[in-house]
Amino acid sequence: MKSMDIHQVIKRLPHRYPFLLVDRVLELEDGKRIKALKNVTINEPFFVGHFPNRPVMPGVLMLEALAQTSALLSMIPEGEELAPDVLYYFVGIDNARFKRPVEPGDQLIMEATMERARAGIYKFHAKASVDGELVCEADLMCTIRKVES
């Protein structure tokens, strides 16, 4: 099992604050499965408006955090950095379900397993939990593409 600290995550994902939603990789089996975490804090910019009297992490951001976790699973080998002309795209989602709200102070544990990789499209089953309780799950599809600068 491998792990990654925030510095290694930043080398592999193009996202930056406030949109980098993976703080650490706890476990990684190349091409098979990953377990990562996101510390949810009250000073996240989305809590200002979602919702002022009852802060709740938006479901779409939980799905984005799962997509970022999934991208880390198989797209960049250990020791390599993200090429400046490469981006990951979240291209599909099926069977998304939300089980309970995620609030400031929660630690979101995200897990993804590789279901298949064909023709540059990667399919994952991903789920997120807080304190061992499932909060959301979905089947995600991502791709990697070179972009013009």
Q: Explain this structure to me?
A:
The structure is a single chain. The protein has helices spanning 6-12, 59-74, and strands at residues 2-4, 24-29, 33-39, 86-98, 107-118, 121-130, 133-146. The protein has a seven-stranded antiparallel beta sheet with strand order 1-2-3-5-6-7-4. It is globular. The chain contains two helices and seven strands, in the order βαββαββββ. The chain has 149 residues and is an alpha+beta fold.
Placed side by side, the strands forming the largest sheet appear as 1-2-3-5-6-7-4
- Strand tally is 7
Instruction: Determine the structural class based on helices, strands and strand pairing.
Output: alpha+beta
Helix-strand topology string: EHEEHEEEE
Which percent range describes the beta-strand content? Answer: 35-45%
Mean pLDDT: 92
Low-confidence stretches: none
Question: What overall geometry do the principal axes of the alpha carbons give?
Answer: globular
- State the CATH topology: Thiol Ester Dehydrase, Chain A
Instruction: State the share of residues found in helices, binned by percent.
Output: 10-25%
Multimeric status of the protein: single chain
CATH 4th-level superfamily = Hotdog Thioesterase
Separation, N- and C-terminal Cα atoms: 36 Å
The CATH architecture? Roll
Q: Report Rg.
A: 15 Å
